[in-house]
Amino acid sequence: MHPLAESSFLGGILDPTVLLHNVGPWALVVVVAIVFVETGLLFPFLPGDSLVFAAAIVIAALGIPLWLLIVIVALTAAVGSAVGFAIGRRAGPRLFRDDARLFKTKYRDQADVFFARYGAWALVLARFVPIVRTYVPPFVGASSMRWRVFLVWDVIGAVGWAVVLTLAGFWLGKVTFVANNVEVIAILVVLISVLPIVIVAVRRRIRGRREVVSS
User: Fold this and answer.
1) Which 3-state string (H, E, C) describes the chain?
2) Measured distance CA(52)–CA(1) in Å, rounded
3) CA distance 138 to 89
């Protein structure tokens, strides 16, 4: 048994390797379920990044080939985003409302402007940012982007995300410090991922204050 599997309940929450070891042969199913739900079912508060990273670290103990983990994670991520896109395309007018808490009409319009300005590469970049990768597909689905364009860049982003996280976990897992402090590394992965959101929010806040002062 992996030594981390004997840690406390709190440790099991913070350290995704404990969860993976405890579920045993169902580890890959857990990874697939969380990665899919995070995007396909529009539920952003799941540890997709840290779980894939941790799965690559303990892949030998799980008995899963690295290439298979990459393929399955990439496929699941792409399908999940495609489902999110379909939800936005089909339910766009009803999903986005002026008085909605999350799916505001102005957010859909901003997504249209954002992708018109930065191009489809924005889909690839959004894949690496938690929460953002959950809401971008339905936003784009409700915009004017064509399905074929979305599909191509969705697959590119999903493959890139899966390769980067799994290889990082696989190679860094060989470092003693990383292997012994997976819970800390998992938290750092999440913090680094959400850093762009924090930066944008701070910039908008500063810009808003300057506009108020200048007016």
Assistant:
1) CCHHHHCCHHHHHHCHHHHHHHHHHHHHHHHHHHHHHHHHCCCCCCCHHHHHHHHHHCHHHHCCCHHHHHHHHHHHHHHHHHHHHHHHHHHHHHHCECCCCCCEHHHHHHHHHHHHHHCCHHHHHHCCCCCHHHHHHHHHHCCCCCHHHHHHHHHHHHHHHHHHHHHHHHHHCCCHHHHHCHHHHHHHHHHHHHHHHHHHHHHHHHHHHHHHHHC
2) 20
3) 7
Q: pTM for the whole thing? A: 0.73
Residue-wise pLDDT for 85-114, tens only, equals 998 888 876 777 777 776 777 766 666 666
Once rounded to an integer, what is the mean pLDDT over residues 183-206?
Answer: 64
**Closest by Cα among 146, 143, 122, 131 to 47:** 131
Q: How does pLDDT run across 126-139, given as a tens digit for each residue?
A: 888 777 788 888 88
Cross-strand pairs, 182: none
196 in Cβ contact with 129 (< 8 Å): yes
